[in-house]
Amino acid sequence: MARPAPVNNRGPCFWCIKAVKWIPVLFIVVIIIWSYYAYVIQLCLETVKSTPRKIVYLIFYHIFFVMLCWSYWQTIFTEIGRVPIKYKIDDADFRTLTITESAEAQRQILENVSRHLPNTNINVQGFPRFCDKCKVIKPDRTHHCSVCGECVLKMDHHCPWINNCVSFTNYKFFLLFLGYALFYCIYVSLTSLPYFIDFWRGSLKEGMGRFHILFLFFVAIMFGVSLVSLFCYHCYLVSENRTTLEAFRPPIFRSGPDKRGFSLGRYNNFQEVFGDNPRTWFIPVKTSLGDGIEFPLNSRHQANSYQSMENTQNSNREVDSETSKLNPGHVVT
Fold first, then answer.
1. CA 288 to each of CA 138, 158, 173, 285, 306: distance values in angstroms, whole numbers, following the listed order
2. Strand, helix or coil at 58?
3. Catalytic residue among 159, 165, 185, 232
4. Does residue 159 carry a catalytic annotation?
5. Cβ neighbours for 180, distance < 8 A, ≥ 6 positions apart
6. How do residues 196-238 score in pLDDT, each as one tens digit?
7. pTM of the model
């Protein structure tokens, strides 16, 4: 039977909300463009008198500027990782799942649906994790994003400054963006510091250019200070192979909650995000290991990683009678 055509509910309100979400991104873009004008034109070309110094300043500045813009672009426009179709719960099973009141019947349905899936995480009730909005079994480390309106692979958080989810597909780019933005701010503030001092001494030449240099120094310091803690925190998360969500609520395995369940050692954790080729670690191109669905486990959980399959095979031998009553036309296989 052909599926009915989806109803298009994208009215004017939808597009207005969608446009408003780009305002934080537009703000960051305007700041970056203005900083380029203030540094290149007003500082280097108009204020710095030494030609060799101008050349050195401009070369290193453009390296940081290009890497910053490249990583920011990749972070924003990389598609989020979506749950594959094989994780979809069919309509009959989902209808039975939502109307049954028996926890055992719900567990059997979920175990049956996920019997061929490589999931190791469970929910607090001991059931395979599922999303009642997307009607899917959640792969390990996947969470539903209320802003994106769908489940996202290895979701870290939704960031309004990129109007996108930070997840498996763009986590490397996000971390590089934070790092290059921090180094960009440090470089701009250090190289503009002598001219900022000249401004307060009154030895900087008159004109509007000196105010651009003044604000450039303050903006670089302000953004740099705010980026330090965020960048260091995410470096810590990478070293522990943990997402922001997992830092607040550790993943639950068959053996219980474990915040270090996916940790493979600091170097291996780093490689999982940045790849195994050192030449591409700090370039904003896709090098992360894996597919965002299956993840290597800490050795303590490897023995239990497929325990759910064994439990499922045992439970499938005898399906709960309540499930059969609620859905007599559907046979669970």
1. 21, 20, 10, 9, 24
2. helix
3. 159
4. yes
5. 64, 67, 68, 71
6. 888 777 766 666 777 888 899 999 999 999 999 999 999 999 9
7. 0.84
